[in-house]
Amino acid sequence: MNTSTSLVSRAALAILVALVTLPVSAQDRKSIEIDRDVITAIEKGETRDISKLAIARTAPDTSGWDALKYTIHLEPSMTGRTISGTTKIDGVATIAGLTTVNLDLVGFTIDAVRLNGSSANFSRTGGGRVVSVVLPAPLNVGQTFSIDVVYRGTPIIEGGLGFGFSSSGAATFAEPEGSRLWFACKDRPSDKAIYESFITVPNQFVVASNGRLVETTQEGGKTTYHWLESHQIATYLISLAISNYRVIEDSYGDLPVWHYVYPELESDARRDFSRTPEMMQVFEERLGVPYPFDKYGHALFENFGGAMEHQSCTSYGSPLITGDNRYDRVVAHELGHQWFGNLVSPAEWEEIWLNEGFATWTEFIWTEHINPSGLADLMAGRESYYIDYEASAGAYSLYAPPPSRLFGATIYQKGGWVVAML
C-alpha cells in the first residue's frame, strides 16, 4: 500500500468529518452555552481597530538587521499616567552597507538617541511611527551596535493595545503589534531577542514581568524590579503588570509558579490557579517537551477581559477569577501557548492559526485528562460554534485570514479541530 496515498485518504476523510455539523442534543446545547464564556475569554475578538497594526500580510523583513536584546529602564507615573525611560536595543547587521536602523515607536517625546554611547542623528518617519537612526558609517554583516532611546510621555492606546493605566495599576497588552506603543523595538514576530528590564514604582506596587526576578532594590520610597528573560522572546510577548499584588507562590518541581493577584481576590485565585502545576505535568507528558522557561504564573490585569499568553507570565483578566475553577480551560489554553506561540513563534501573522489552533488543542488535552467523558461534547460544541460563526461571518482560510478576522473563531476553534485531526 502506498503510504502517502493512505495518509492523504485519511486526511481527506478527517476533513470531511470536520465539515459536518454534529447533531447536538438539548443537554449538549446547555453545555455549549456554558463553554461560550470560556470561548469569549480566550478569543481576542474582532472588534479592535488593527488598521494601524498587523494587517495579516507580514511584509518581508528588509530592515537589514536583527535584534539581539532589549534592555528597558522605565518609571511610570501611577498618578500622572505617563511613563519615562530608556530602551537600549542591541542589534547586528545582516546586510553589507547598513546605513540606517529603523525602530518602531509611536508617540512620546524623544529626549535623546545614542549610538554606541554617543549622540546620534535621528528623525521621525513613517507618519511618526518610526524612529530612523542614521549610522555614521555603514556596517558590514555581523557588525553589532547599541542604540539607546530616551523618551517620555503619555502612552497612546490603539485598538486596546499599549501601556494601559487603570484604577488597579497598569499593564501592557501588545498582540499583534502594539509593543511599539510603549518601547522602541523591531516590532515583528519573527525577530526574537533577549529581554531585560528595570522597572521603578512606588513601594506599594509590585511589578510582574517575563523571565526570572533577578532582584529588587529600594531607594527613596520606590522599588526597582529587575527582570531577565534569557530565552528568546518576540516583542508582542514582552509584558509588564503593575499593581498592589499579593504573590501566590506555588511550584512545579523546582520551577517557580507565581501568581500575581489582587488582595481581595487572593482566596478565589488560589483555587482557580491551583491546577496549574498539574496542567504543566500533563502537557509535558503529552507533548514530550519540558516546559521551556524559567518560571510560570499569572498576573491579573484590566486591559482585556480575557487572557494573554505573555511568555512565562500570562496576563489574566480579573473577571475570570471566580473561585470555582470554571475557567480552567482558559488557564490550560494560555499555558499551552508557552509551547505553541512562545517557544515556537510565528514568523508572520499569516500563521496565527498555528498559535491559536495548537493552544485550543491543549484545552482538549486537559479536558481529556480531567474529564474524559466530556471531551466529545466539548469538541462538538466548539465545532458547532465555529460553523455558526462562519455562517454569519463567512468562511475563510486558516492561513492568511482577512485582516478583520485575525482573531476570529475560525482561527481558534476550527484551528483546534484541524490540529486534533492531525
Relevant terms:
422 residues, alpha+beta, eight-stranded mixed sheet, five-stranded mixed sheet, 8 helices, 20 strands
How are the secondary structure elements laid out?
Elements: H1 3-19, H2 26-42, E1 65-77, E2 82-93, E3 98-104, E4 109-115, E5 118-119, E6 121-125, E7 130-139, E8 144-153, E9 162-166, E10 169-173, E11 193-202, E12 206-209, E13 212-219, E14 222-233, E15 240-243, E16 246-252, E17 255-261, H3 266-272, H4 276-287, E18 296-301, E19 307-308, E20 314-317, H5 328-336, H6 352-370, H7 375-393, H8 409-421
Parallel strand pairs: 1-11, 17-18, 18-20
Antiparallel strand pairs: 1-2, 2-8, 3-7, 4-5, 4-8, 6-7, 9-10, 10-15, 11-14, 12-15, 13-14, 16-17, 19-20
Helix pairs in contact: 1-8, 2-5, 2-7, 4-5, 4-6, 5-6, 6-8, 7-8
Task: Tell me what the structure shows.
Strands 5-4-8-2-1-11-14-13 form an eight-stranded mixed sheet, with no helix packed on it. It has helices at 3-19, 26-42, 266-272, 276-287, 328-336, 352-370, 375-393, 409-421; strands spanning 65-77, 82-93, 98-104, 109-115, 118-119, 121-125, 130-139, 144-153, 162-166, 169-173, 193-202, 206-209, 212-219, 222-233, 240-243, 246-252, 255-261, 296-301, 307-308, 314-317. A hairpin with a 5-residue loop joins β19 (307-308) and β20 (314-317). The radius of gyration is 22 Å and the shape is globular. It contains eight helices and 20 strands. With 422 residues, it is α+β, with helices and mostly antiparallel strands.
